[in-house]
Amino acid sequence: MTVTVRSFAKINMGLRIGPARPDGFHELLTLYQTIGLHDVLRVSVARGSGIEIRCTDTRVPRDESNTCWKVAERVMQSLRTKGRVVIDIDKRLPVQGGLGGASANAVATLLALEQVLRRPLPPAEKLRIAAEIGSDLPLFLVGGTVLGVSRGEQVYPVPDFPAIPCVVLTPDVGVSTPRAFATWDSQQKLTPPPTFDRMNELGRELSAWLSEPYSGAPSGFWKRRGRAENPLLWLVRAGIKNDFEEVVFPEYPELGEAKRTVMRAGAKYASLSGSGSTLYGLFPSRETAARAVKKLRKQGWTAQATVTLPRRQYWRRIFR
Ligand code: C5P
After folding, report:
1. Is 10 a catalytic residue?
2. Which of 46, 103, 112, 38 is CA-nearest to residue 75?
3. Which of 26, 29, 243 is the best mutation target for the ligand 1 pocket, counting ligand atoms within 8 Å of the beta carbon and taking the most?
4. DSSP H/E element including 113
5. Any residues with CB less than 8 A from the CB of 77 and at least 6 apart, and which?
6. 29, 151, 183, 275: which to mutate for ligand 1, most atoms within 8 A of CB?
7. Residue 255: CB partners within 8 Å, gap ≥ 6?
8. Of 21, 30, 277, 311, whose CB has the highest number of CB atoms within 10 Å?
9. Is 23 labeled as catalytic in the residue annotation?
10. Does the pLDDT value for residue 50 go beyond 80?
11. Please, are residues 8 and 46 in contact by the beta-carbon 8 Å criterion?
């Protein structure tokens, strides 16, 4: 049996970097959001043993360094089962970093294997396997709008944003995530930081957003001003930002320029996703997003229009 699965991408709506930890990772606070852009994976298990990755995109590794391979190995071990796992990846997402493509592929493999083998894994076991492979795998076991803490692997579903039209821009630049973290650390050493303050600040904004409907404001107040009307604009006003921009834009000025271009093309909000190089802009309508894509492409950028994917749609559309 072969199971076909959509592997959706994510963007980060706000990301704060905290202190470096003894294990080499950094404390993080981020809001992940799944989006409609996706790869398609076909996963099957035949008699025999071993793992085979098929992908025509030469930038995708086909050996044990592929996150899908790692997940397949662990799932087969965890289920104490044998067989030859074949994973066929139809790469449609840009491979530039920031969209969590490889992480999403790995989680899609895990979900497909459960279906192929008709053996569900306990949810906590799935989260454990995902977190072991990478910090931004577990979010794809939740989908929609997801709060990420610790090194980003501890994930909690939060009330979904409605579907928001967005434009994803993929500049032809590769940004190394460990290097971006290292640059961040060296800058923090120069100006000793209230590192936890920065995270607490975003934490307070998110907490205020989540508790808003219960905050005792006069009835009707939030209908006029609050998140019932436009949760996204509320967060934008609250100043969500991605700390990586501070280290990535000085090193790659073209990415800062790309962000300004997205804003000029009509975005209500634009940001680097993760450590980049992918950037995204959020738009008031599908029409304005489509117009922006046309304009950006004319200027030579690689841009795609999509829409953010709330949790329910995410799970409804994963299997087809
Ligand atoms: O977990 P993941 O494989 O995505 O992390 C890649 C690298 O990014 C890590 O080896 C680490 O250098 C850095 N990282 C970090 N702090 C995090 C997440 C990642 O320093 N919270």
Report:
1. yes
2. 112
3. 26
4. helix 101-117
5. none
6. 151
7. 171, 173, 248, 249, 272, 276, 277, 279
8. 30
9. no
10. yes
11. no
